[in-house]
Amino acid sequence: MGQGVLEINDCGLRVFTGTDEILESPGIAVVEPQKILVGTAAQMRARCHPTQVNNQFWRRLSLESLKSENARCRHHADLAYCHLQEVADHCDLPEEVALAVPGNFSREQLALLLGIIKESPINAVGLVDAATACLSATAPRGVHLHIELQRQQTLVSRIAVHEQSVLDIAETVNDAGLQNFQDAWARVFTDAFIMQCRFDPLHSAEAEQQLYDLMPQWINRAMRGGEVLAEMEDRTAKVTLRQLQDASTPILSRVRALIENLSESTSVVFVSHRWAEIPGGAQLAERIHLLPHNCIAQAISGRWEQIFSASEALPLINALDSAPPSEVAVQVNSAAEAAATHLLFGHRALAAQQPLFVSWQEGKLNITPTPPEHPAGTVTSHAGRLALRVDAGAQLMLNGQEISTPVNLTAGDRIGVADLEDVITAISVERYGA
Is residue 179 a contact partner of residue 152, using CB atoms and an 8 Å limit? Predict the structure, then answer.
């Protein structure tokens, strides 16, 4: 099936054929005495068997011995091999695969990974740093950051983009991964059910599993509508987007601290698609660009000759030719001096303490505090900033340019629709006196 990519990220190993994603498998294992479940099958049972779960085998990839009754689980490398075998069993692998790896893998881990790959059905012909590949294809000249969400941590990579894009630094923020966000949100939903229904979703392992299974769709609905009515075992509890953002804030703050430490005044912060599913993720940095979900596959497809190697001992590629400046077009959320506090529409100035919804119908633009039948975008407030999130399929304009990724709003920004005269203007309302 030609050329493809295997992205190594324990949030989900992803396989691409060309630029099309054909499989994603979370880095979770449930180790039972007689069998090992990995990927989605393990994720669906992880809360029911907490003592048998291992969700750190990619992060701690090594030959360090594990205490296990299963003879196939001697160390983390065994679980990584099982995961790769599971991936191979559930999709038609490309004939030639480039491995996209995180910048925080050590030399020993990379060597071990290549040894495991050699024993698997995967025909690896290239090894490249994922952040370097992404920014080589998308970033303008300068020093920029790539932010990737992993299961237990966040990886921040600094890339110098000139004639070549070169990995400079890769550092991690521990306890700032997808699992940490999920646990924080689970506490929000649990408290809501207890307070509103006198029902504890954690009363049994099966109920806890159901809670975690349902959370992704609840989070998505809250981010689209400003709140969600979570339903579980004939109980319903309301949770607002603001509650979820507040739960995310302590984790996001630690990531922001590292971003501020590693970035320069002109740096753009490129965040992976996974951040679009994190409440508050749009406020991760002031100058931010959300990468498409297949960014890594697109980048590698255009640089295949630089990444391909005929050698069995694949060299790690962490320097690639940068895209010509004429081919780079980045929608950057730039912060102005005054952060927007209100939205001006006609003669009304609307504060966004609660989500506001942008829509249009029969040639008329509108913004309302209640969700319309066909919303085009949602404006939310968090930590003193307004953020605009565009709904899938909608074509909103910001300052005359079409946008599709979340952006922070600053005073003077104009939200509109092509061919409509009406605009919604972000403004800063200042208060004086006591």
Answer: yes
